[in-house]
Amino acid sequence: MSFRSLFLGLSLIATTALAADPLLVAGDKFRQLEELLPTPNSYRTASGAPGHQYWQQQADYHIDVTLDDANQSLSATEVITYTNHSPDTLRYLWLQLDANRFRQDSMANRMRTVSVADEGDKANRIDMGSYRRELMTQVHPSGINLTRVNGKGGEPLKYTLVDTLMRVDLPTALKPGQSFELTIGWQYQIHEQKALGGRSGYEYFERDDNYLYEVAQWFPRMAVYSDAHGWHNKPFLRHGEFTLEFGDYQVNITVPADHVVTATGILTNPEEVLTPVQRQRLAQARNANTPVQIITKTEALENEKRRSEDTKTWRFKADRVRDFAWASSRKFLWDAQGYNKGGTDTLAMSLYPEEATPLWDRYSTAAIVHTLDVYNRYSFDYPYPVAISVNGPVGGMEYPMLSFNGPRPEINKEDRSDRTWSRRTKYGLITVIIHEVGHNYFPMIVNSDERQWSWMDEGLNTFVQYLAQQAWEEEYPSKGGEPREIISYMKSEGQVPIMTNSESILQFGNNAYAKPATALNILRETILGRELFDFAFREYAERWKFKRPMPADFFRTLEDASGVDLDWFWRGWFYTTDHVDISIDRVRHFTVNTKDPEIESQWQRRQHQEKPETITEQRNQGMPRFIDGKPELHDFYNDHDQFTATNQARNDYADMLAKLEPFERDLLQDDHNVYLLDFSNLGGLVMPILLELSYDDGSSESLTLPAEIWVKNAQKVTKMLVRPREKRLTSVVVDPHWQTADTDVDNNHYPRQILPSRLELFKEKKKKNMMQNYAEPLKESGKEDG
Ligand SMILES: [Zn+2]
């Protein structure tokens, strides 16, 4: 044997030996996360809290912007005061120019791919929306057109554009504790939202020739510089929305005098832009129990006919926010209702065009109030002075204090007063408002980085949204949260772990929203219980409000505050694509063997007799046998079966008893029922085994085996149950209340069940032939189009 074959031989033995150990085959699903998480330091502690030297930068803005309604464009100037609270000296600053995503040459546009099948039913097809966007991208002059980038003394600063980012080189390095002031002027062509998509844009209303603007991601914003990542200078591609620094904003928005403007922050000059009646209604709304109309439908319909040549400047002030968005139109109806509870003193407001009634006047502000109620309960008191929902072209998007929400009723064109809506539209509206207003908490205040981790705000927010939906009405059609709703995703192909960068996520909605929300709901209802979970979740929100958490801070805080090792849970749900499928494979029943020949011989005989007769035995019954009537052929064995107790057995038994301790003798007398339950983990994700046990006396019992049952062998385990003599187990059900998102409930029953279902019968449709189609009478509209 050569050295080489000796070595191979040994390694083969080693592999076989490894394969035999289930812990090594399935991996240690309880291995602590420390090796994956960043090392704790004085900025972020091992407990998941901000450290004693935690810092973050501050970016304050003074912006003057003018809306050109005729050209749907903006011209603006901003003064940014950037304060370096980091311990580092900075030689350059990075800014986000997210609107540059709409430039023809943006990375987002150039990286966009299509999938057009070249065979089958869907061959050579592309949807009109995608094609229209492709065409619009060719011609739309989008992006931030910089007119100046100056220092405090007006001196031009050297800057470099890198896709949606801009680096500004500082004339002198910015030391810790110092501030730098820069002035930026720019022009910005707003895009038609329905044509180019995105999280902002305008909508044009042909009937009254008006525009409605939802303006966001519209100004050069300071990129984040943090202890965890340095500059967060990733380009804006598609999914990873943004993270920004907190700061104080003063924004002056000049619009046509008949426009109504709403924005992040409080209006500081209402006497200049609102009528006395509107101001009085706003004051009245503060203490109202239902929304008060600030601008009524009649007033809005009147206003949308105007075309003022004058302008007005609306002045807004917002403190401790990480962004600023606004909306403007002649078309707005406006309602408001005060919310003053606990530490929250705010005004819930909705602005929407007439086209959104009567859904919006009924539900929007009510949904905001409800969101504040529920989110305050599970996180912290809403700290801002306003909470606004605006209806326009954007389907759903959040900014501080302000959200854009899309759903509207169907309008009958023949009779505009005839309005209907689907169930989906109604609950879609309430859901999107809860969701987008809820984003004030995550990530507008708990400032996670969506450009890196979508789940940290979408997932956490969808989880609290689920709690709010359940608190809105019974049987609310929630999508994310209920374990049974996530099953088809959990067993689907093409998944990536939740811990995946926003742009690389496959099946975005399920991965970033529904799965983390469901995981947290399971953690709350099934792993920790409501009390422990709610305490720990609130602790996370409190620790990180107005700060910037990373995934490790969330994982660590929930363990730190609940006192429960959840590393296996984070590992399984957030770092893998395993799913839950626990099978009850077998139940074995035992009673203790007494070793007493008198008892055991009878027991064995009974077992023998209870076996089913073979078919031959059945057919041979009553058959005459050869020894019948021949006593000379009978002996001892014809009178004593194989189970007969012998004296030797009795003596052995007595000898054995004499050698036993009293407790050992008692054990032989024990008459409990002993059950061995075999489980296998087919999905890979370790979870507690929730059991419902039924007995023949009609009673049942719930039993939870903790996830740690899988600690040594994550594939197969056997659990022993000892029950009193009178309790005979008749059935075992795993996860009877569908709490764990177990993907295959057929194997959750022992014995297995036959479940009823419906078989759909269908009939092939007969197609008309060409002669029949040709002979069909031509309609008027067909002639016109043809
Ligand atoms: Zn969201």
Relevant terms:
786 residues, Immunoglobulin-like, 31% helix, six-stranded mixed sheet, seven-stranded mixed sheet, 25% strand, 24 helices, 32 strands, disordered N terminus, binds zinc ion, elongated, alpha+beta
Small-molecule binders: zinc ion
Query: How would you classify the quaternary structure?
Result: single chain
CATH class of the domain at 58-117 and 126-452: Mainly Beta
Report the C-alpha radius of gyration, rounded: 36 Å
Distance between the termini: 86 Å
The main pleated sheet reads as: 7 strands, mixed
Q: Classify the secondary structure makeup into a structural class.
A: alpha+beta
Count of helical stretches: 24
Mean pLDDT: 94
Count of DSSP E strands?
Answer: 32
- Give the helix level as a range of percent: 25-40%
Using the alpha-carbon principal axes, give the shape.
elongated
Could you say what the CATH architecture of the domain at 58-117 and 126-452 is?
Answer: Sandwich
Strand residue content = 15-25%
Q: Taking strands numbered 1, 2, ... along the chain, how are they ordered across the largest sheet? A: 4-7-2-1-13-17-15
Q: Which ranges are low-confidence, i.e. pLDDT below 50, for 5 or more consecutive residues?
A: 1-18
Q: Fill in the CATH topology of the domain at 58-117 and 126-452.
A: Immunoglobulin-like
- Please, what is the CATH homologous superfamily of the domain at 58-117 and 126-452? tricorn interacting facor f3 domain
